[in-house]
UniProtKB/TrEMBL annotation:
Residues 1-24 form the signal peptide. PANTHER family: OS07G0260300 PROTEIN (PTHR43640), THIOREDOXIN-DEPENDENT PEROXIREDOXIN (PTHR43640:SF1). Pfam families: AhpC-TSA (PF00578). Residues 41-198 form the Thioredoxin domain. The keyword Signal applies. This is AhpC/TSA family protein. Keywords: Signal. The keyword Repressor does not apply. GO terms for molecular function: antioxidant activity; oxidoreductase activity. It comes from the Bacteria.
Length: 218
């Protein structure tokens, strides 16, 4: 009987050890894993305004665009090959929809200490080189992209003004072929904005953003 009690005690102690190990393992997850689970906006949420520095040195907010019907907010950057592939298409989106009330607002979310190519001066040079027709803002302190839930560059959030609020209507990729614009068969952002302009329901409200991970200081 004594041996049986000893075995039971050992078994219970083993369970306690396993439980303790599991809890400790969970608490010791790397910080970057915890950051990656931060919840951003979902379709239907209200997106709060921001005030970020543009490449011309001026501060820009969504509230500055008094006549806008909404916005095509795109988190993008200089260095990412995916972002570079989409630059011309982003310019075309702005040229097509700005006059219809949906301007592009580009935001660079990357920490320049991690990726020097995404520094402020480099942003100015890239915008001039490519002829950006839209604001190219820097997310200093990386406070805005987590609110939105952006995880890639590029990552798009189409907003619509409703009763003074900016409501999220679409989240995800620009289209379904980053590599070759001639092979695109699904124009996600264009379809979303076209539907909003017509007062129609969006057929696609969320897709998976394809691009580089956002660079965060460890």
């Amino acid at each position: 009987m004594k041996n049986m009690k000893t075995l039971i005690a050992a078994f219970i102690a083993g369970l306690g050890l396993l439980s303790f190990t599991a809890v400790n393992h969970d608490k010791n997850k790397p910080q970057k894993e915890i950051i990656s689970t931060v919840k951003g906006y979902e379709v239907g949420d209200e997106a709060t305004d921001f005030k970020l520095k543009n490449i011309d040195g001026k501060m820009v907010s969504l509230s500055d665009f008094k006549t806008a019907k909404g916005f095509i907010v795109i988190f993008t950057c200089n260095h990412c090959p995916y972002a570079k592939k989409y630059e011309d298409r982003i310019i075309e989106l702005d040229k097509k929809y700005k006059s219809q009330g949906y301007p592009v607002i580009a935001i660079n979310p990357n920490d320049p200490n991690v990726q020097p190519e995404d520094g402020y001066q480099q942003m100015i040079e890239r915008a001039k080189q490519k002829g950006f027709t839209f604001p190219y803002l820097v997310d200093e302190g990386q406070k805005i992209y987590p609110q939105y839930g952006a995880t890639k560059t590029p990552h798009v959030f189409v907003l619509q003004k409703q009763n003074g609020k900016n409501i999220v209507k679409y989240i995800g990729a620009i289209d379904n072929n980053y590599d070759n614009p001639n092979d695109v068969s699904e124009y996600y952002v264009q379809n979303a904005v076209n539907a909003l302009l017509k007062g129609e329901l969006l057929k696609m409200t969320k897709t998976v953003a394809i691009g580089c991970t956002i660079k965060v200081k460890k």
